[in-house]
Design a protein that fits this description.
Shape of chain B: globular
Largest sheet of chain A: 6 strands, mixed
Strand content of chain A: 35-45%
Radius of gyration of chain A: 16 Å
Strand order of the largest sheet of chain B: 12-18-17-16-15-14-13
Oligomer: heterohexamer
Bound molecules: FE2/S2 (inorganic) cluster, fe (iii) ion
Helix content of chain B: 10-25%
Distance between the termini of chain A: 37 Å
């Protein structure tokens, strides 16, 4: 049986999301910006600010270069306790399959493990994304991590 | 972990006085209870919000003072009020929405109704039903309003006090008033958004952190590498008469290597950003200062770091935990470029900030280090043992001054 | 938040007496410890389960009294027993399964074996192995049985007591006995299922809630809108001699607008259900009452709201948390229509109930409001200041009566 | 390569589940009943009751109309603290692909965020569902949310 | 539209993972070893040990027979409190589709519910697996559950 | 659950003495505080790690003693040191990585730098910057080093003590020394890996468990069914002079049914493994013993069960919680077969172990059983009432001896 185009597209997108998740969780941060377009937009913003059109974000990056800068600071300048992060992503949904920009959303839960504590829920929310195809490869042109977890347990070191 | 109640009696401040902070001050549950009463509910002005958060008549927003929950309201006449979020009937936290607009607060339990000033306006079935029940003669509405606080406002910032006899806000700010007015110069403020962190440490560690310029040049590699804050820059630490308030002032200079550079082990001279738009500060305040961090007793930090402006409200949750509530803002007359600049520079601050992550992480490490060490004490000798103003950053004077005042208030 | 131990000594009930409840009564950890001993382990009958939950010989089910864990068992002769779930050897909570059927309880640690009455029946290696080890002469099985409680049963409901001298159950229920027998009339009960909630508030707030008809017409928009419970309906609040038990009785009437309607701000006159099958109550009990809510000291609520029947067991977990364990039931002789009716009406009750969600949410808001307010007190003046029965719903008399008894028991 | 019918069906079902999740998590409750047939059955029941054939459910609705009533009461009559809910769903499995009724199951975790607390696990369990195709659209004819979380943290306001 | 082979393979693998999850969560432990090859390798190992090449694992089984032994001991010899487990799995990724061995990874979160407590996060981590096709059926020839949750809340009774 | 502070004064050990353990000993928060001081920070040698965990100069690894956090280091000269993980400046837990290699520890806050021996080596801006600030004359590096502990090492195992006058390690181990040397015979150890559990019970329950051979034949069906440990096997319980240390020794014999078999209700005679490779023990130590479990006061269990070797470090987190940190090891000269054998047999131990799951689960059940029972006590009468060595397993003598010593140390 052959497959409707929208379902095939979702399968492709799931590959992109899986690559995103594993780059972060396996601490291959350097691979993470490669999943974005050069002039991408990325933000981690609370649902409260997002719903009230308050622009302030916990992270706000306006280019792939800014993502790369985040990676460099995590590696070189930020001081933080070592931790493991683990993403679970589900319910990917294509909102608009029009080219050039595909609009899609998904739910996520991020778990954090510090060295001396049991694993805890760090941050849950929704990805509100735009994806484009650049020479055959899907990349995020825009990614908003809109989080429910308005009261953040201490710090957000890594991207969500 | 719960300290036995007679500990507090047993406990004595170390004889070295201002140059020491005993570690029990960060974890004793009874000391915490006393702080809630004497520090936050005492003779102090507590930040509760910006007027811009409740611009219209009927607007309200939840806030907190110490561990007490309050509501900031603006009544029909435009006056601001701060009400305890606790129904006068049987104590329900009646206001549930973080913020909104209303004419009355109606407690969900029995629908007692209060106006925006906290006055009790309606008690259902006050006269009973069909000649049955209802309130006794002796019950007077006037006796059962919400607990209200004194309110003071200056240039768009709202403070409240549980104290009847605290001095006027301007006198309270004392020598810091000019620094306060530097940021709050009367221009209308524009709200940019909120950030909230639950930090697993004692609230006083946050004040220590901001009152301590010594750490800034050493912990914050990002700041230092970009010369945003360096020990060898012109800078000052100023306090009010009591020592409870302070301001750290610094001016970005050319990053000439100095004899101090050697001590900044983490300094990454050649560090640059792939996308420099994150950092293109412009001067917007009179004078040479590029950074001014105000710490206002007992619950507020006013942050001006380049072009990021934020209030940081301290909301203690317990001896070993506090909420840090950030309100980022600009001015109504900001142009779009400045608005975006503030949003970009906000990447330095908040729960994920290039600078403030260092601080929230180090505060947890402090708490982890001192938790079990009730008999030991921290050492505050950098810059000498006194508590006066300085024209440099190489000092813990403002931390010493803070604890000098703290001990007076707490009777320790 | 742990209150210093000398607080309790410091604490005094407000001078207004029965018309006030001091907020420290909802959060003091030592007061809680004392409640566990004097209220739940004191001269009281505690609900532990329905006989229908352990119908067969050998059946058992875990339960709790205050914060002590017990097991309800039925022995070979059909007799019911209540055993402390704590091995007599070294204290292991030996019964792990929520319920089951067995001839013996064998503690997992060293396999001491107890029969269904709690008697110690076997100690492995009692005589040692190969003439080595074993128990000393002085060790007698009879001295090492499980702690057992007194048990009383009436019409299918099982109660237990730690007290040797508590009066017989019928005397204990006193004037409430007829209301108890109204639901438990001797017909065999049919178990419909369980629901469990962990409610972040003090357990006494649950009793206040059910003893308080004043809130029902105001908080529960769903009830009011369907006239299932309204301040202007014929109703009564009845108590036993001591005031520790109470019943709220109400009769659904025609929903004529009354002068009381005005006060029911939330009333949605025109509210109707798209699928009315959820609510098609039928009369099943003698008399006109359509609702009868019994509160039986110290841990039980018997709910008859239209055709939903449920036991609500209160299991305190700490000063600021309790488990609310629901057992929904009907009668063996229910026809299928009634069985389905009860299941549909169950949508009003439990953790997601159209009515009870209002209550569990308001209890959390109460706890949030009173937590930090140890010096303030709740006001109980609706319907006057006395603690007698009333023929109407506009009163807090039953709450006042509850605390009158509470203070006697607690010596406060 | 062409796709076995059962896999294609699962992809279709995943779309239905994603629509379900986002309708609830984005607070578009009014869209939620539309994913059910008119005479549907919906319940939220503890694993303890379910395993012992005790019929009592925390929510038991016997028609789309009853679902609509739940939405109206959430909007108009229930009193509760504001909260965010977030679903993560995985391991969707087709148990029986026979028409007209498709039997399937999936695992879910629901996270709850109250205004002043960190995000917590509210409820985890298994969806045990039946799905039918009505004029081309898949809808739930029956959905049982069988939850492990027998000790419920305070209240269940929203559907699971 | 026809489907690239790699996406079709991922769909097949997702079925295997769903069967794995439901066998454990529905307490059909006896079905669990059937998803492995006879000479399989299975381990549950902390990320700390795994990253440092320390071989010690919480569970280390070197054949399907050892998996069956685990099931028998859970049923007959181990003493533990009754509990419910619930898996959520996401971000399945095929690392290497070469036959005979397919290499793939996925993220998981396991929730545990004890009788008298709210549900908690028991264990989160990554599956690092190898899958082979035996007479048409996909089976795990190797499965490593590499967990972030280094500080384990009490016990691990069931497989992860 | 927080016990009021005067409880401890009120509390008395039961008059039966060594044959009883009062249940308050497992939950009183003040007693816990006192244990941290008198037991772990008292005259005792605490296990902190294996030398093989820090083989190279500059290697370090975090550890803990009671609830105090320490770091084990190896300096340039190869000497081992144990440092309190708390900066001498303001208390920061300066070492964040679980382990690593370094020449200095630099505290993140103000970059005070310590060498591997704990000596303070650098304080940034000690002399100020541009003649401003800096440390006062009175500040001497020598006065501000890290707190260091006494260190003792024997055959690859490292111990530390807060006490200046604790006896040498060998004297401390006393009669147990030969059993210690049996496993630690001087051969270099090979680290196999770590496991960590957070067990919701009091730390003393772990010692009770390992000092109690009575339970092993009954609780551990797996052990018994394979004859790895049976009450009817030749075995001994030996203690040191003080009773604080003990070793349980047992020899696997033929599994002849004995009169004891009858008592082992759970014994599955016919139980076999589908893949017997999991269990193919080989004799590797002199003598007949196949199991030797050492319990060394106050924080270590040395496990030799067939060919699984492990240290179990007890790290109390609070009265009702402790971390159990496992270090599995073998010998450098193990061949591959032995290495794999140890890894396979490790399936019996750790958080998922065929044997140790029984224990971690039963410890939780113990805590659940005793938590609310501060007035009751556990019974320790198996094998009589005395505390001497025995030549059999049917005794709780080692548990009695443990509490005899515990009471002396704690002054109870
Ligand atoms: S508690 Fe607020 S109206 Fe009764
Ligand atoms: S504790 Fe129950 S038999 Fe020993
Ligand atoms: S706290 Fe360690 S250097 Fe200041
Ligand atoms: Fe800082
Ligand atoms: Fe109610
Ligand atoms: Fe054991």
């Amino acid at each position: 049986m052959s497959l409707p185009a929208d379902l095939a597209l979702r399968l492709e997108l799931e590959t992109l999301y899986a690559d995103y998740v594993h780059a972060l969780d396996d601490d291959r941060l350097e691979d993470w910006p490669k999943l974005f377009t050069e002039d991408c937009f990325y933000e981690v913003i609370s649902r409260e600010n997002h719903d009230r059109d308050l622009p302030l974000a916990a992270m706000r990056f306006e280019s792939r270069a800014m993502l790369e800068d985040r990676v460099v600071t995590i590696r070189q300048t930020l001081m933080y306790e070592p931790r493991y992060l683990r993403h679970v992503v589900s319910s990917l949904r294509v909102l608009d399959a029009l080219t050039p920009q595909i609009a899609c959303e998904a739910n996520y839960a991020v778990f954090e493990t510090l060295m001396d504590d049991p694993t805890r829920v760090l941050n849950v929310g929704r990805y509100l994304d735009r994806v484009v195809r650049e020479d055959g490869t899907l990349r995020f042109s825009s990614k908003s991590c809109v989080f429910d977890s308005v009261l953040i347990p201490n710090s957000l070191v890594y991207p969500i | 972990m719960a300290a036995p109640s007679d500990n507090l009696i047993r406990r004595r401040w170390p004889e070295q006085g201002t140059s020491r902070v005993p570690y029990w001050a960060y974890s004793d549950p009874q000391l915490f209870e006393r702080e809630m009463d004497l520090v936050f509910a005492g003779r102090s002005w507590n930040f509760v919000g910006l007027a811009a958060e409740v611009p219209e008549p009927g607007d309200y927003r939840q806030s907190a003072i110490g561990n007490r929950k309050v509501v900031l309201t603006r009544d029909e006449r435009g006056e601001l009020h701060v009400l305890l979020n606790r129904c006068a009937h049987r104590g329900v936290k009646f206001c549930r929405e973080r913020q909104g607009n209303t004419r009355f607060f109606t407690c969900p339990y029995h629908q007692w109704r209060y106006d925006l000033t906290g006055r009790l306006r309606a008690v259902p079935f006050y006269n009973g039903v069909k000649q049955q029940g209802g309130m006794p003669e002796s019950f007077q509405y006037a006796d059962h309003g919400l607990q209200t606080l004194r309110v003071a406002q200056r240039n768009g910032v709202v403070f409240a006090s549980f104290s009847e006899d605290v001095e006027p806000l301007e006198d309270y700010l004392g020598a810091l008033l000019p620094w306060y007015d530097r940021v709050f110069d009367g221009r209308p403020l524009r709200l940019l958004g909120y950030s909230r962190q639950l930090i697993p440490s004692n609230w006083k560690l946050m004040f220590e952190n901001i009152k301590d310029p010594y750490h800034a040049s050493l912990l914050h590699v990002f700041l230092v590498s970009f010369g945003l804050f360096r020990a060898d820059q012109p800078s000052r630490v100023l306090m009010d008469r009591t020592g409870r308030h302070a301001v750290l002032v610094s001016s970005k200079g050319e990053q000439a290597a100095s004899e101090a550079t050697r001590d900044m082990a983490n300094l990454k001279e050649q560090f640059t950003l792939a996308d420099p738009r994150l950092l293109d500060p412009v001067r917007e305040f009179p004078g040479s200062a590029t950074v001014a961090m105000l710490t206002l007793w007992p619950n507020l930090i006013v942050q001006q770091q380049s072009n990021t402006l934020a209030m940081r409200q301290l909301i203690p949750r317990g001896p070993e935990s506090f909420e840090l509530a950030w309100v980022f803002f600009g001015y109504e007359d900001d142009d779009e470029a400045m608005r975006v600049r503030r949003l970009r520079q906000a990447n330095l601050m908040g729960p994920a900030g290039y600078v403030s992550v260092d601080d929230s992480e180090v505060m947890k490490l402090s708490q982890d280090g001192v938790r079990e060490s009730v008999d030991a004490a921290g050492v505050l000798e950098m810059g000498g043992l006194d508590t006066g103003d300085t024209e440099h950053m190489v000092t813990e004077a403002a931390v010493r001054a803070f604890y000098k005042h703290y001990r007076e208030v707490m009777g320790l």
